[in-house]
Amino acid sequence: MDKISSESENFQRIVGKTMISDLPDDLLVQILLLVPTKDAVATMILSKRWLSIWTMMPTLNYEDSECKSVWQFFNKSLKIHKAPVLESISVHLGRECPVDEDVGKWITNAIDRKVRRLDFKLNWSAKPIKLPESLYTCNTLVTLRLSQKILVELVSQSCLPSLTLLDLKYVVFKDEDSLIRLLAGCHILKFLHVKRHIEDNVKNFKVKVSSLEFIIYEYDNYDNTGYIRGSLVIDSHALKKIIVFDNSGDSCTIENTPRLDKASISAMCYLGDKFMLSSLIIFDVLFNIGTVKCCTTINFSQLVECRIQPFDFDWLEPLMVLVQNSPKLKLLLIDQTVGINENLPLSWNRPSCVPKCLLTHLEIFEWKEYGGRSEEKELIRYILANSRCLKRVSLSMKSTCDLEDKEKMMDELKSMSRISNSSQLTDTLLILNYYYLARIG
Fold first, then answer.
1. Which residue(s) pair with 255 in the sheet?
2. FRET pair for 404, CA 20 to 30 Å: which of 76, 125, 217, 390?
3. 311 CB-near residues (< 8 Å, 6+ apart)
4. Residue 308 CA to chain centroid, in angstroms?
5. 25 — alpha (psi -120 to 50), left (phi > 0) or beta?
6. Could you tell me the superkingdom of the organism this chain comes from (predicted)?
7. Which among 285, 417, 281, 305 has a CA at the least distance from the CA of 364?
8. CB 207 within 8 A of CB 235
């Protein structure tokens, strides 16, 4: 009680004791939305005028996940909350949440009041809990975020006619059918973010949502001892952007995506034959033995920007095949911050014909963690000698090189002949110094 009194005194000092209480209820509610929910609730003891103002707030946030009292505070405050419509409710409960509490009852409460945005993270010490079935038939939900100790179990198809954003982080599915039933009822879903762990009960993860425009899929499984290989299949006709991070070794297939124009693929697996990427404009890829076939057999007729991250294989010649298949490429980035193996042999042979993009389009070439190996030098020499439209070449030297070696390598590069008189060679990366995925998302 002393804490609440102190908080109310602070609030009084901030807003003053006179004029503010004369404002209309609607405006006072808007003011309370600017402060944390617990502070808004504390204003109820200021005066009779303030007693019920906070109960009309359309947005509630309870995110003190490690506080022992947050669950009790949440329970009590929700019981006296009066807003007929809940625009948004966010609840993050940590390990201090009592395991015998019925955490599903507040979800039912929120659904009864036509909640539009719901964010529930449960990280208690008990097993994952099944949420009320009414959650998956809520016709007002626009955004749904579920995290951690939550069991997604559906015995029939969901019906979420307003849902446009679905975010699932480390949840557990009853079975693969529950995943299929959940997605099947999301007819206008635009954005899907999935972050998985190995014990989520799904071997074959299939996303078939015709309205989906952007998907982020993350499966971080470094310790895959005894792991049975599965698959990822994405089939979404409206898909425009995709980010995949998957080191599980599962197979990966993207099909029926004629509108896909931006993709970031970081996968330690063999990409399927139906991997449709020919419409891409921006492409970010972990260039490894599993992705190389896809990257060297597709005609990237629309590709303008490409970042490759070579990983533990002989990559120089496959890169030139990709460049050969990308006639409109303007921006080529090589990022060697991962997977550098200095003992791995590299092969270099000049292409039989100059790639069209070098003659007509390539303007920017950047290389991060350039090592100065003879084969790498030949690649740069070839690009400088054949890129007629080149405006800027930027390189950062390998971090293990000392200053003298870096200066020597830069002098060697500057001495190479260039067909483009307007090209500049610098050691300042203008694009790779930023998080490249921002260009995707």
1. 235
2. 390
3. 286, 287, 288, 338, 339
4. 19
5. alpha
6. Eukaryota
7. 305
8. yes
403-414 helix and 374-386 helix, angle to the nearest 10 degrees: 30
For the segment 238-242, the average pLDDT, to the nearest whole number, is: 96
Query: Residue type at 91?
Result: V
Where are the chain's structural domains?
Answer: 1-57, 58-202, 277-441
Helix residue ranges, H only, 123-195:
176-184
d(CA 212, CA 209): 6
CA nearest 413: which of 430, 397, 402? 397
Which range (3-17, 141-155, 222-236) has the least confidence? 3-17
Q: Are strands 172-173 and 59-62 parallel, antiparallel or unpaired?
A: unpaired
120 residue type, one letter: F
Q: In which residue are the tokens 């920017």 written?
A: 364
For residue range 91-117, list pLDDT tens digits in order. Answer: 888 777 766 677 788 888 889 889 999
pTM for the model stands at 0.87
Give the chain's mean pLDDT: 86
For residue 253 the two structure tokens come to 């297939």
Q: At what angle do helices 70-79 and 104-112 cross, to 10 degrees?
A: 30
**245 DSSP assignment:** E
Burial (CB count <10 Å: 0-12, 13-18, 19+), residue 18: exposed
In one-letter notation, the amino acid at residue 124 is: W
Task: Identify which of 394, 401, 399 has the alpha carbon closest to the alpha carbon of residue 432.
Answer: 394
What's the full length of the chain, in residues? 441
What is the structure's pLDDT at 420? Answer: 86
Tell me the pLDDT band of 1, cut-offs 50, 70 and 90.
very low
Helix H or strand E segment including 440: helix 437-440
**Inter-residue long-range contacts of 253-257, CB under 8 Å, 24+ positions, other chains counted:** none
Residue among 374, 281, 357 at smallest CA distance from 319: 357
Bigger pLDDT: 210 or 60? 210
Which residues have C-beta within 8 Å of that of residue 241, sequence separation ≥ 6? 213, 214, 215, 260, 261, 262, 263, 440, 441
